[in-house]
Design goal:
The complex is a heterodimer of chains A (371) and B (330). Helices cover 75% and strands 0% of the residues of chain A. Chain A has 16 helices and no strands. In chain A, α14 runs parallel beside α16. The longest helix of chain A has 34 residues. Chain A is globular and about 65 Å long. The two termini of chain A are 21 Å apart. Chain B has 330 residues and is mostly helical. Chain B has one domain: ABC transporter involved in vitamin B12 uptake, BtuC, CATH 1.10.3470.10. The C terminus of chain B is likely disordered. Classes of the chains: A mainly alpha (371), B mainly alpha (330). Chains A and B meet through α8, α9, α14 and α16 of A and α6, α7, α11 and α13 of B.
């Protein structure tokens, strides 16, 4: 069959070893790859980069300009270039910078982590939370509120971080036991099972402690506002390191998406690759959850939306997810500010309300691109 | 193994009815069944413990079957009814009924039922296109996830917009609880299952075919389109009636199938999944009511759904660690 010829060209890498007999396991992926001819996809994706960057810039400006008190474009530029502390409008613009930065960081982290996670788990339903990260973070935060009476965001972030990391290590450890190592199916099952167990413990606390529920229900929906620099700054290095690791895994994920046997045949150290990618995902998700609470939808659907446009090449999916996920989160946050004036609807809620219909429309319009 | 599961269901059923904070002897139990009136015991057993245990068994069976049908047909262990939006449809509708309209009891159950069926119909209509073929499963799941996200956002929003007492009541419902079990609900649930279980039995052969892929199923003589539709409708109805009876008891639908598959050494079995579902719910309800010390929970008895995940998840993890054979599709 022609697949053996065209696959190496698509992923732009010559096989360094014989393609094993297990190729049939990846035949669906090979077929998917064949439906998306490499060249036209890449050219289209390349042309898309300035477009999505422009969209991101526009949304960032909009995030600074819109809100309970709208700011004109001239005032916005003046506030950014020539800040006058006495000017009320300038102060408003500056007060919107932290939430804009938060949305940028969280969106970028979740988008990239989601794309990588779907590649690692080879499962279109895998979201960043599938490693148990969100459940671990949530349980840790609930424990922090219930046992230690923590009630500030600065207090939550370290609980969230530690909870996320511990959960991810446990999931990966359990999935790695046994002779075939951390296979995608064991990762997915172990992650979903641990999520179930941890959520049960969390709900046990929430059902029995009204005070804890009262604090937790607002953290749980996920939000980007109200985060000061004291919360944002400690998280930035984690996001940076996580992005660095994960963005470099594009080629690894391409190979993994062909199935373990083919990837091995291409000279990939499958176990190591998966572990490195998972490490990046955990750092990103831990940071995002610590900063904004569990925002579930972004990491799951942005890669799907991107894939519909770029095709199955992770070297394109990852950077596009990096740019488009913050667009979704920022857009959601802006609409959330305006939709319920004088109040606000949290970004975590608006993300789903806005993103889901777009996602559904995309899925319906074209045949969902497989992994 | 299936026989052992059946025995476990029966034993746990009687443990739930006979033991606990109020103990009944076996002869007394049969005298009660025969219509004898024993002061105190009559009410506690006949109006509380027995309907509760029956409800627990039936919803365990229904959730176990619904989850396994989805996971097998869509060939994805993560594709339980929670993920593809049906439970969240029920949850959003029920929480809205509680928070916005201040409803309680049967009205909330009805709202949950309507929510589950409405969202399922919506997902089906949106994902349905003429000439359904390969990729239909993926589209169904992804669109379901989209709707699940919206419904989840609605629930989260409603939870932040109500007073804390209502929110806590909603949380109990969202986890799933057997506290409001009574014979009326058992009757509705049992009648629904009497209709649905034969449908499952008839469709089980098609399901085994679809597990191998659409082409293989067609080769085995399965009419893929009608079989898939029948299975979706049956599984949705199972999940909906069970959710209406006790709330979306957490994780039973997701856990039952993978556990059953590993207990049987790789082969999927609907009967085993139904048994595992019933075992999880009955064991969790007994543990919630009797084994967890009240001082840890500020004097509240935990709803069953809080414990199902805590019992089922470690067991599945243990099976993942100890079983070497990894069956496809969980």
């Amino acid at each position: 069959m022609g697949a053996e010829v065209s696959v190496p060209t698509r992923i732009d890498q010559r096989p360094r070893g014989p393609v094993s007999e297990g190729a049939s396991a990846g035949s669906e992926h090979l077929a998917a790859a064949l439906r998306h001819p490499a060249k036209s996809g890449n050219r289209r994706a390349l042309a898309g980069i300035p477009v999505v960057l422009a969209i991101l810039a526009v949304v960032c400006f909009a995030s600074l300009a819109f809100g309970a008190r709208p700011i004109s474009f001239e005032t916005l530029i003046a506030a950014l270039t020539d800040f006058d502390p006495a000017n009320g409008d300038h102060a408003v613009v500056h007060s919107r910078i932290p939430r804009t930065v938060t949305a940028l960081l969280v969106g970028a982290a979740l988008g990239v982590a989601g794309a990588a996670m779907q590649g690692v788990a080879r499962n279109p339903l895998a979201d960043p939370g599938i490693l148990g990260v969100n459940a671990g973070a949530a349980l840790a935060v609930v424990t922090g509120i219930y046992v230690f009476g923590i009630s500030s965001l600065t207090g939550y972030i370290w609980f969230a971080f530690v909870g996320a990391a511990v959960a991810a290590v446990v999931v990966y450890g359990i999935a790695s036991l046994g002779r075939e190592g951390a296979t995608p199916i064991k990762l997915a099952l172990a992650g979903a099972a641990l999520t179930a167990g941890l959520s049960s413990l969390m709900n046990a606390i929430l059902v029995s402690s009204q005070d804890t529920l009262d604090a937790f229900r607002f953290w749980q929906v996920g939000n980007v506002s109200g985060r000061g620099w004291d919360v944002i700054l400690p998280v930035i290095p984690f996001v940076a390191v996580g992005l660095l690791i994960t963005l470099l895994t594009g080629r690894i994920l391409n190979n993994l998406s062909l199935g373990d046997d083919v990837a091995r045949g291409l000279g990939q150290k499958v176990g190591l690759s998966r572990a490195i990618t998972a490490l990046g995902v955990v750092i990103l998700c831990g940071a995002a959850t610590a900063l904004a609470g569990p925002i579930a939808f972004v990491g799951l659907v942005i890669p799907h939306m991107v894939r519909a446009f770029t095709g199955p090449d992770y070297r394109w999916i990852l950077p596009f997810s990096l740019v488009l996920a913050p667009v979704l989160l920022l857009g959601a946050d802006i609409v959330g500010r305006l939709i319920a004036l004088p109040g606000e609807v949290q970004a975590g809620i608006m993300t789903a309300i806005i993103g889901a219909p777009v996602f559904i429309w995309l899925v319906r319009r074209r045949k969902a691109a497989g992994l | 193994m299936v026989a052992a599961l059946g025995a476990a269901v029966v034993i746990l059923f009687f443990v739930n009815v006979l033991l606990g904070s109020y103990t009944v002897t076996i002869p007394d139990f049969f005298r009660l069944l025969g219509g004898a009136d024993i002061p105190g015991a009559s009410f506690i057993v006949m109006e509380n413990k027995l309907p509760r245990a029956v409800t627990g068994t039936l919803i365990g069976v229904a959730f176990g079957l619904a989850g396994t049908i989805f996971q097998t047909m869509l060939r994805n262990p993560l594709a339980s009814p929670d993920i593809i939006g049906i439970s969240y449809g029920a949850s959003a509708s029920a929480v809205a009924a509680m928070v916005v309209f201040g409803l309680t009891g049967v009205a909330v159950s009805a709202a949950a039922m309507i929510g589950a069926l409405a969202i399922a119909l919506l997902i089906y209509l949106v994902s349905h296109r003429s000439g359904v073929s390969g990729g239909a499963s993926a589209r169904l799941i992804l669109i379901g996830i989209g709707f699940a996200a919206i419904m989840q956002a609605v629930v989260g929003y409603l939870m932040t917009r109500t007073d804390i007492r209502t929110a806590q009541g909603a949380l109990v419902w969202l986890n799933g609880s057997l506290n409001s079990s009574n014979w009326d609900r058992v009757a509705v649930l049992a009648a629904s299952l009497v209709l649905l279980l034969p449908a499952v039995a008839m469709l089980s052969r098609s399901l085994r075919g679809l597990e191998l892929g659409d082409d293989a199923a067609a080769g085995l003589g399965v009419r893929v389109g009608p079989a898939r539709l029948g299975l979706v409708v049956t599984a949705v109805l199972l999940a909906a009636v069970a959710t209406a009876a006790a709330g979306p008891v957490a994780f039973v639908a997701f856990l039952a199938g993978p556990i059953a598959r590993r207990l049987l050494g790789g082969a999927g079995s609907l009967v085993a999944a139904a048994g595992v579902g019933a075992v999880i719910v009955l064991a969790a309800d007994f543990a919630a009511a009797n084994l967890i010390p009240m001082f840890l929970t500020n004097g509240t008895a935990l709803p069953v759904g809080v414990v199902t995940g805590a019992l089922g998840a470690p067991f599945l993890l243990w099976l993942l660690v100890t079983t070497n054979r990894v069956g496809r599709g969980g």
